[in-house]
């Protein structure tokens, strides 16, 4: 039932409104004659619809409208007044009122306005429900997923699978595009597992050249090579008893894949320069943004290593397939960076939200975060505007509109990725370190894609 608050200093009007609206059976009605109490009442118990008299002593209707705007109280407000004042109406409209009725109020007109207000409130609540992160109450370990902000139902199903996989000691392979949140899921698995009290070591597997792999993963003894001035534990030893997360596993070269496979099979390794074996008790969680089936066919990835890693598989959907998450995450990052940089930007403009909602986000959540971060730094006004967005993003949005308006063929994901990387490289003057941060991938991965798409200048 729609909740209505009527504020008026005339007791006769309040009595009429209460009896008339209650008789419809559609409304729960509260009345307030002392307008000095309005601020407290509106703050503690926000109605769905506010019927507001303008001419009242001490605290008038305009004072209450300013309060609603200042406190960002979003309520369907109908102004009631005995004077036909155009300037007053315009001022009130600017403060966010929804309608303006003259006294004595026409009953049919009032019911029509209230029906509109009720419909709008229902729609608003439905939209808020869709945007609100789903409840984690159905999960056994909801705290493990608190860092993954989403309102997508498919993600909730994935979380249930994650919980089941986490309780075993099996290797897990997480599939998904760069920036989709694979490391967050890996951390959730570790937090749920029996290894939660031991180390979680995250490594970008694609960032190590062959000659560095042995030293970094297995560790080394002092004097084992020039510059080895002391003993050093490798990633495997640091993660012993815990979890080792290997991101971008598809970037490993074949020689490194052989070494990793041998360790997984034998459950022991040797530090570089040592003849003493180290027993390994490590759970491996790997992640890839590549189609490893295709990589196996091309001879770029070992089938036996794949089956070692892919005991349990998790597929993370890209941001563009997660309904409602773009706007939800945009607002989250907006508040976070607004506070971090000491800004006082009040909102994201509607045109910006429209662009964000219609963009494909090849860089996923990480790209969205970087976009908002960059825009907040540039913006100097009270609203986050299109002019503050990076030029590569605006160019890409323009290109997408051009394709749709001219009826051209839709691009494949690889074509979109190639074009997106090209524009980011142009935007950064071919600075691959900066470009890789914007794209949300490692520099090694970027260089690999530059070669693949023949984008080298």
How would you summarize the topology of this molecule?
Elements: E1 2-7, H1 11-23, E2 27-32, H2 38-44, E3 49-53, H3 61-70, E4 76-81, H4 86-94, E5 99-102, H5 107-131, H6 153-166, E6 172-175, H7 182-192, E7 200-204, H8 210-218, E8 219-220, E9 232-233, H9 235-238, E10 243-247, H10 254-266, E11 268-270, E12 277-279, E13 283-288, H11 292-297, H12 303-309, E14 312-315, H13 325-340, E15 347-348, H14 350-357, H15 364-378, E16 383-384, H16 391-405, H17 413-427, H18 432-439, H19 443-452
Parallel strand pairs: 1-2, 1-3, 3-4, 4-5, 6-13, 6-14, 7-10, 10-13, 15-16
Antiparallel strand pairs: 8-9, 11-12
Helix pairs in contact: 6-7, 13-15, 16-17, 17-18, 18-19
Structure description:
Strands 2-1-3-4-5 form a 5-stranded parallel sheet, with helices on both faces. Strands 7-10-13-6-14 form a 5-stranded parallel sheet. It has a two-stranded antiparallel ribbon with strand order 8-9. The chain has 457 residues and is an alpha/beta fold. The chain is built from 19 helices and 16 strands. It folds into 3 domains: 2-131, 3-Layer(aba) Sandwich (Rossmann fold), CATH 3.40.50; 147-315, Rossmann fold, CATH 3.40.50.300; 320-452, Helicase, Ruva Protein, domain 3 (Orthogonal Bundle). It has helices spanning 11-23, 38-44, 61-70, 86-94, 107-131, 153-166, 182-192, 210-218, 235-238, 254-266, 292-297, 303-309, 325-340, 350-357, 364-378, 391-405, 413-427, 432-439, 443-452; strands at 2-7, 27-32, 49-53, 76-81, 99-102, 172-175, 200-204, 219-220, 232-233, 243-247, 268-270, 277-279, 283-288, 312-315, 347-348, 383-384. Helix 6 packs across helix 7 (182-192), helix 17 (413-427) packs across helix 18 and helix 18 packs across helix 19 (443-452). Residues 402-409 have low confidence and may be disordered.
């Amino acid at each position: 039932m729609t909740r209505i608050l009527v504020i008026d200093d005339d007791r006769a009007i309040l009595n009429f409104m209460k009896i008339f609206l209650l008789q419809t059976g559609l409304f729960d009605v509260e009345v307030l004659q002392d307008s000095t109490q309005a601020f407290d009442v509106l703050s503690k118990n926000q109605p769905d619809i506010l019927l507001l008299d303008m001419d009242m002593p001490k605290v008038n209707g305009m004072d209450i409208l300013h309060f609603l705007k200042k406190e960002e109280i979003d309520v369907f407000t109908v102004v009631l007044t005995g004077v036909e004042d155009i300037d007053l109406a315009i001022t009130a409209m600017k403060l966010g009122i929804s309608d303006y009725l003259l006294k004595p109020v026409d009953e049919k007109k009032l019911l029509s306005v209230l029906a509109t207000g009720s419909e709008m409130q229902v729609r608003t609540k439905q939209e808020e429900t869709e945007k609100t992160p789903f409840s984690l109450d159905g999960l056994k370990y909801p705290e493990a997923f608190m860092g993954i902000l989403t309102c997508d139902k498919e993600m909730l199903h994935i979380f249930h699978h994650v919980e089941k996989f986490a309780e075993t000691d099996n290797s897990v392979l997480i599939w998904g595009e760069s920036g989709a949140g694979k490391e967050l899921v890996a951390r959730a698995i570790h937090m749920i597992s029996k290894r939660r009290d031991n180390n979680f070591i995250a490594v970008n597997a694609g960032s190590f050249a062959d000659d560095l792999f042995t030293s970094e993963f297995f560790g080394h003894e002092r004097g084992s090579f020039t510059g080895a001035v002391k003993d050093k534990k490798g990633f495997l030893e640091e993660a012993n008893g815990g979890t080792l997360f290997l991101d971008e596993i598809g970037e490993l070269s074949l020689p490194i894949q052989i070494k990793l496979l041998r360790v997984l099979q034998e459950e022991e390794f040797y530090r570089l320069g040592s003849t003493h074996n180290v027993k390994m008790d490590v759970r491996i969680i790997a992640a890839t943004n590549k189609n490893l089936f295709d990589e196996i066919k091309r001879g770029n990835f070992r089938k036996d290593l794949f089956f070692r890693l892919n005991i349990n598989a998790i597929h993370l959907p890209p941001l563009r397939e997660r309904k409602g998450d773009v706007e939800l995450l945009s607002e989250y990052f907006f508040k976070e960076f607004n506070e971090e940089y000491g800004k006082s930007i009040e909102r994201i403009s509607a045109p910006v939200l429209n662009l964000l909602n219609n963009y494909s986000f090849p860089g996923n959540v990480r790209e969205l975060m970087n976009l908002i971060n960059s825009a907040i730094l540039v913006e100097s006004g009270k609203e986050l505007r299109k002019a503050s967005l990076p030029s590569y993003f605006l160019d890409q949005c323009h290109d997408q509109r051009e394709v749709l308006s001219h009826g051209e063929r839709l691009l494949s994901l690889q074509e979109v990725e190639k074009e997106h990387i090209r524009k980011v490289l142009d935007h950064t003057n071919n600075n691959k370190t900066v470009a890789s941060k914007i794209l949300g991938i490692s520099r090694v991965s970027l260089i690999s894609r530059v070669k693949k798409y023949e984008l080298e200048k």
